[in-house]
Write a structure and sequence with these properties.
The protein is α/β, with parallel strands linked by helices. It is built from six helices and eight strands, in the order ββααβββαααβαββ. The strands form two sheets. The chain has a six-stranded mixed β-sheet, with helices on both faces. It has a two-stranded antiparallel sheet with strand order 1-2. The radius of gyration is 19 Å and the shape is globular.
Amino acid sequence: MIGLLKIDARTIVHYETLNIMKWPTKEERENWEIENFISHYHSIVGGEKLKIYSRGERPDFVLLSESNNQKYGVELTSVYMNNRSVPDHHIPDIESYKHNPYGGEDNIEKYKCKVLKSIRNKNKLALTGYSTENPLILSVYINELLSMLIGSEEWSCFFLDNGFDIDETIFSSIILWPIAEDREFGLFKNYL
């Protein structure tokens, strides 16, 4: 079908664009997230290589360490600024984005608070029936362009300043990815 469709006052798209664009299914999104999580996890912990052992719910995946056969339950979550942030803010080029008010200090702080709230909500959910047969890891996909403005040190200070203690959660580790420079940030339980 050829023609134009008015989405809102400033957005008009071609019908053929709508037919080409396909939003990924939940399974496709989760497969993409777990593969990328595994890569970021490997980067942050070093030599431990993980592979998918099984798929499920509560947690989403069980991963197996190739080095010591330890299994880990992995719960996936992604945090958006709001339900319009992807189409409204992920399209501009990176240089124009750096000067966009969306990336200002207020929005960065709001987003970090939203990530912390999401982590706390996932912890509450996990306490109500997740399998704890294996240590649980929370994978937090930082799915916002403004994440490129938040580095490891800033995340560390934010969690400390907000009194977040991973030892008070069900998770053995929490991995935020990607952050600035396509890196990752991890919180790990102190088992000493």
